[in-house]
Specification:
Strand order of the largest sheet: 4-3-5-12-6
Number of domains: 3
Helix content: 40-55%
Strand content: 15-25%
Structural class: alpha/beta
Distance between the termini: 45 Å
Largest sheet: 5 strands, mixed
CATH superfamily of the largest domain: Periplasmic binding protein-like II
Number of strands: 12
CATH class of the largest domain: Alpha Beta
Mean pLDDT: 89
Length: about 300
């Protein structure tokens, strides 16, 4: 197969130097490979006159058949990969802050491109997704961007969700339509435990500071949004969460949502996969990137 590809590169370029550059190899080994192929076939494939070459009649016939062989081989490889992917569902993780509409948009785009590929969706935190991607227990992860690990490929999938303040109904803050830095300066902020996700914790605190927000105190109240909302009720504090979690807040009595002014957002949501091992879909990273580009081009 390698010799067929070498031959077709020379046939199409009609120049050993350009063909070698196209194949990312040096010219002498390429010339030797073509002469070896000619020796095995017992025919001359190229007329060599000085620096110019031209295919012989045998060379032109061989090129036509070589293209058919390589095309059939490429189809066989693609079908083999497609069979493996079809038999094994693509395991996809997503975090609690991903809106259901965005998850469905991604799954629909994935299904449209790979109609024979089954999917298996799991609700997992970011660090757990990263860990499973590395262990080969997850094929794709969808979570907020917070770091750039060298062993995971990440591409921006969706814009970051708007951050909102959740406060006790009937209190001073609930009486305001929007909350500014001056409104929150003396308040106690309840935030998820840093140990649950150090990179995202530091990013969120830094983002609030860059937007001008400061607080009378910061309390780590648990890894779950429900813990933070219940903590805000008990302590009459404030917690800041993605707007996506409004429905979760509505299930907690005594909590209301108020927009922030100036607005702040979560980091972009990324699609991630391991750089090690077989690709999770038949055409690998290029196919996944095309899906992402298509989704980002549509509102």
């Amino acid at each position: 197969m390698r010799h067929l590809r070498y031959f077709l590169a020379v046939f199409e370029e009609l120049h050993f130097g350009r063909a070698a550059e196209r194949l990312f190899m040096k010219q002498p080994p390429l010339s030797q490979a073509i002469r070896k192929l000619e020796g095995e076939l017992g025919v001359q494939l190229f007329d060599r006159t000085g620096r110019r070459i031209a295919p012989t009649q045998a060379g032109r016939a061989f090129a036509e058949e070589a293209r058919k062989v390589l095309a059939a081989f490429d189809r066989a490889v693609l079908e083999t990969r497609r069979t493996v992917v079809t038999q094994n569902p693509v395991r996809i993780g997503h975090g609690p802050c991903l809106p259901a509409r965005n998850l469905l948009r991604f799954l629909e785009a994935l299904s449209a491109r790979y109609p024979d590929v089954a999917t298996e969706v799991r609700h997992l935190g970011t660090l757990e997704q990263m860990s499973r991607l590395r262990r080969g227990e997850l094929d794709l992860g969808i979570f907020p961007h917070s770091s750039d690990p060298s062993d995971l490929e990440q591409v921006a999938l969706f814009p970051g969700e708007s951050l909102q303040a959740f406060v006790v109904n009937g209190g001073r803050l609930a009486a305001r339509e929007r909350l500014t830095p001056s409104d929150l300066r003396a308040e106690s902020l309840l935030i998820f435990t840093r140990a649950a996700h150090p990179a995202l914790f530091d990013w969120l605190v830094g983002e609030l500071e860059r937007a001008g927000y400061s607080f009378g105190g910061v309390t780590e109240a648990g890894p779950d949004a429900r813990d933070l909302l219940l903590g805000a009720v008990v302590t009459a504090g404030v917690t800041i969460l993605p707007e996506t979690l409004t429905s979760t807040a509505e299930a907690v009595p005594g909590i209301v949502r108020r927009p922030l002014d100036p607005e702040t957002h979560m980091p972009e949501t990324v699609l991630a996969w391991s750089m090690v091992g077989p690709p999770p879909v038949p055409d690998g990273a290029s196919g996944l990137r095309e899906i992402v580009r298509a989704l980002r081009s549509r509102p």
